[in-house]
């Protein structure tokens, strides 16, 4: 049973470009969470999605950031017109129906904006 | 609020000693408290968790205690080994607007000196 899969592992973008980060949850998991981690800091909640639904996007910046989890395929975190301050590690996590069980993280995507 | 405070931010111990990391939370409705270990450049990995209906849980050299009245919980690592060196994050579930999400502390960098 494969774990949470994220790709790419590393992504380099120039200012103004778009970044697309992908996450495939563990088999059987229907809940996906995205977190951002800055160097030497903790994990900041961004968005919580279920299939075809955004449940909670309270941690996501209002502009340039969007997320989706379509019926088929991985969850996508999209950052438009990236700026240097977007450089961070972006982790995706999935859980089964009940969050009270376990939250499993992917290996993360390290985004570097030049 | 949705704060999880974690102390200390850094902790250095000698191999064989015990290490204790403490967290407090603000949401009295929180009922699930996991701990994650993150090695440099790796994903956060769940090492132990506790629910609000128990006060203590042990797994070999790791234990977690919970005081719901005081809203704090702690991670105890006994007989520390160099491979325990990592950043440890506590978290608490926050229920808000019908959705649940994990809110993390800022982490404790544990160094175990041989």
Task: Describe the 3D structure.
The complex is a heterodimer of chains A (114) and B (114). With 114 residues, chain A is mainly β. Chain A is built from no helices and eleven strands. In chain A, the strands form two sheets. In chain A, strands 2, 4, 5, 6, 9, 10 and 11 form a seven-stranded mixed sheet that branches. Chain B has 114 residues and is mostly beta strands. Chain B is 0% helix and 61% strand. Chain B is built from no helices and eleven strands. Chain B is globular, with a radius of gyration of 14 Å. The mean pLDDT of chain B is 92. At the A-B interface, strand 5 and strand 10 of A face strand 4, strand 5, strand 9 and strand 10 of B.
Short description:
Chain A is mainly beta and 114 residues long. Chain A contains no helices and 11 strands.
Radius of gyration of chain A: 13 Å
Q: Give the overall shape of chain B, derived from the CA principal axes.
A: globular
| H and E string of chain B | EEEEEEEEEEE
Our estimate of the beta-strand percent of chain B is over 45%
Count of individual helical segments of chain B: 0
Q: Determine the N-to-C terminus distance of chain B.
A: 40 Å
Uncertain segments of chain B are none
C-alpha end-to-end distance of chain A: 36 Å
Compressed to H and E, one letter per element, the order of chain A equals EEEEEEEEEEE
The number of E-state strands of chain B comes to 11
Largest protein-protein interface: A-B, 21 and 25 residues
Query: Which percent range describes the beta-strand content of chain A?
Result: over 45%
Q: How would you characterize the largest beta sheet of chain A?
A: 7 strands, mixed
Oligomer: heterodimer
Task: Please compute the radius of gyration of chain B using only Cα atoms.
Answer: 14 Å
Shape label of chain A: globular
Q: Which class best fits the helix and strand makeup of chain B? A: mainly beta
């Amino acid at each position: 049973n494969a774990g949470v899969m994220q790709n790419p592992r590393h992504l380099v973008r120039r200012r103004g470009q778009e970044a697309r980060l992908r996450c495939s949850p563990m088999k059987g998991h229907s809940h996906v969470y995205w977190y951002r981690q800055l160097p030497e800091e903790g994990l900041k909640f961004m968005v919580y999605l279920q299939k075809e639904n955004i449940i909670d996007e309270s941690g996501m910046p209002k502009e340039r950031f969007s997320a989706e989890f379509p019926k088929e395929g991985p969850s996508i975190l999209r950052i438009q017109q990236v700026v240097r301050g977007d450089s961070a590690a972006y982790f995706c996590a999935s859980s089964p129906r009940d969050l009270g069980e376990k939250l499993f993280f992917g290996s993360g995507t390290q985004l570097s904006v030049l | 609020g949705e704060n999880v405070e974690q102390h200390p931010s850094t902790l250095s111990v000698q191999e064989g000693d015990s290490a204790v990391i403490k967290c407090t939370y603000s949401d009295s409705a929180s009922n699930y408290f996991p701990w994650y270990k993150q090695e440099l450049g790796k994903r956060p990995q769940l090492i132990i968790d506790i629910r609000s209906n128990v006060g203590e849980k042990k797994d070999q050299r790791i234990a977690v205690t919970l005081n719901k009245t005081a809203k704090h919980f702690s991670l105890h690592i006994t007989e520390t080994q160099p491979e325990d060196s990592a950043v440890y994050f506590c978290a608490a579930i926050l229920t808000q607007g019908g959705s649940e999400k994990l809110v993390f502390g800022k982490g404790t960098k544990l160094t175990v000196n041989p």
